[in-house]
Each structure stands twice: as structure tokens, then as C-alpha cells.
Amino acid sequence: MEKLYGEKINTAVFISGRGSNLKSLIKYNKKRNSPILIKLVISNNLNAKGLTIAKKSKIIKYIINLNNKNFEKKLLNKLFYHKISLICLAGFMKILSKNFIKKFNKPILNIHPSLLPKYKGLNTHRRVIKNKEKFSGSTVHLVTSKLDSGKIVLQKKVTVSKRENEKTLEKKILKIEHFLYPEAIKKFLLNL
């Protein structure tokens, strides 16, 4: 990892939607003792609200066209050009290929709205409620070529009430994610 003592790690955040985790990461990145410097925000969605957050924060934004066969090559070129040493996936709704992960060859973190290894993939809140789970939560983990299966960095648990629905559970988990992701980044980077 390209980090000299006291320097911040050049970070890219990948988003697809509203960017609420991006917002909390930008806030964290501005703190004096934060180990990261967000240099790039990358989205596969031209209309992602998170792009407005990036613009307001004067962070370079880059929209990737998934229909372009060479999009991963272009993306890697962009990451290497900006000397990115850490990727944080924050609601990025595209699975990165094994090839991309191998070629980037630096840590990629993801935040997932369940207590992994339970409920990998999509529709986690619906499945949690359907199975009448008493707890759910969020997990920050390392990205590998297997979906939501990398080493767990940090988890936080919430209680699922009997009257919970998908929307209320999503809101509850999103709230803890905004604190969990920065904590997990700090923990991960301290243990490198």
C-alpha cells in the first residue's frame, strides 16, 4: 500500500445510488486524523444522487459505461492514474470481476446490509423479515471474487422488531452504516 507515515491513503468510492454512505465517508475523510483521502467517486449510474455530493465536495467524478467491453480496463487506468490504493464500495450495484480484483491488487472494502455470512446478495431486508430473524445489521468486509464472502472487518447488529418492514429495517441499518464504515476503515488500515 502506497502510504508514507502520516500521509493519507488515496481512496476511490464506488456508488450507484443516493450516496448516503459516500456522504459519511466524505465527512470522515475531512477529519484531520482520517487515514483516507477520497480522490475519486465512480458510479455506474449517470443519475446517481451521490454524484451531486461528490460535485459539492469538489471530488473528481467518473461515470463508467457498463456496456463498453473495455470498461474495467478504462477504470483501472483511471485508478492507477490517480494513484488509488483503496476502493470503498458504497452501494455499488455491480459485481467486480475476478480479473479486475486481481489487476487492481490493492484492498477493496464493501459495506453490506446484513450480518454476513448470512444473507449475501440482494433483497437482504426482505429475507431477514421473511425468516423472522431477531437481529440484522451491517458488515464491512474485504472484496474477493466470491460474492460477499471476503474477510469480515467489522459488523454492527440491530434488533429486528416484530412490526419491522423492509423500509424501517433499511432505515435503521443505514443509520448504523454511517458510523460503521469509517470505523471499519480505520480498523482495517491500522491492522495492515
Write a concise keyword list for the protein shown above.
single chain; Rossmann fold; alpha/beta; 7 strands; 6 helices; 2 domains; 192 residues
Structural class category? alpha/beta
| Overall domain count | 2
Largest beta sheet: strand ordering: 3-2-1-4-5-6-7
Query: What is the CATH-assigned architecture of the largest domain?
Result: 3-Layer(aba) Sandwich
Query: What's the helix count?
Result: 6
Which descriptor suits the 3D outline? globular
**What is the CATH C level class of the largest domain, in words?**
Alpha Beta
Instruction: Report helical residue fraction.
Output: 25-40%
Query: Which superfamily, in CATH terms, is the homologous superfamily of the largest domain?
Result: Formyl transferase, N-terminal domain
Q: Indicate the mean pLDDT.
A: 93
Beta-strand percentage range: 15-25%
From the alpha carbons, calculate the radius of gyration and give it in angstroms. Answer: 16 Å
Along the chain, the helix and strand elements come as: EHEHEHEHEHEEH
Taking pLDDT < 50 over at least 5 consecutive residues as the criterion, the unreliable ranges are: none
| Tally of strands | 7
CATH third-level topology of the largest domain: Rossmann fold
Query: Could you give the distance between the termini?
Result: 9 Å
Question: Biggest sheet, in brief?
Answer: 7 strands, mixed
